[in-house]
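Weekly modeling sync, notes
Attendees: S.R. (lead), two postdocs, one rotation student

Agenda item 3: backlog of single-chain predictions. S.R. asked that every request posted to the team notebook include the full sequence so nobody has to chase files. The rotation student volunteered to paste the first one in as an example of the format we agreed on. Action items at the bottom.

Example entry:
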Amino acid sequence: MMNMLVSDIVRYVDSIAPFDSADDWDNVGLLLGNLEKEVKRVLVSLDGTYQVLKQAKDIEADVVLTHHPIIFDPLKNISSKDLIYKFIKSDISVVCAHTNLDRAIDGVNDCLAKALDLSDIKKFEDSIDCGRIGSLSLTFSCDEFIKLVAKKLETTVRATRCTGKIKRVAVFGGAGEFAWKAAKSAGADAFVTGESKHHILLDAKNEDFCFVDAGHFDTEKLICIHLKNKLQNEFKNIDFFVANQSSPVCYSDGDKTWH
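Predicted structure, as returned to the notebook:
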């Protein structure tokens, strides 16, 4: 049985979510580590954090595969207190698949669309090829649909109400708020994403459109278990794990606080 290397992980991720399809501003691929290092355990995570590093060390992972880049802005220095330093010191390689995984077939946005039980899923605009649009099996009122999203994604959402019925739904995991008008133009009755600025919510409300903000973390978390399963199916002699992460955001109604 051949030993698997970091380069094998990188090569496979590139085959299902080509790194050259990432946005120009993005940072994907091998961000830390050695392509020639042998791999026995991989931890899949949405983010690279101190908590994820601890989990990686606890399971003796050789690689952490993240969705969000652990290095994004240019680094001017690295001190011994920095997360990057600690990953390097721990000899744990970090591979990132970000916007390339957002737009990939069977990637982040396809996972989000399937989680909402959409059918006939397709891109809703070629120039915004991360987003997906599809149809619900039933037609819902706006309030029913908002509750459905919260239930399916197991999270708290905020949304704008509309007077119409919801059948066609567009999704864009993470920071996709900018794409809501393209989604509406493509025939969507509602749009589900992970972030929303006040003026965008005002615009959606003024256009009597259902805009659902389900949180950046909760619209993308689904990809971790999905990616872990795909990798495990490809590499039988490597152990894959999903990091135990929760949204960094908590909510409070004055009586209780929750994620």
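Discussion: group reviewed the output briefly. The two ends are 44 Å apart (CA to CA).
Action items: rotation student to repeat for the remaining queue; S.R. to check formatting next week.
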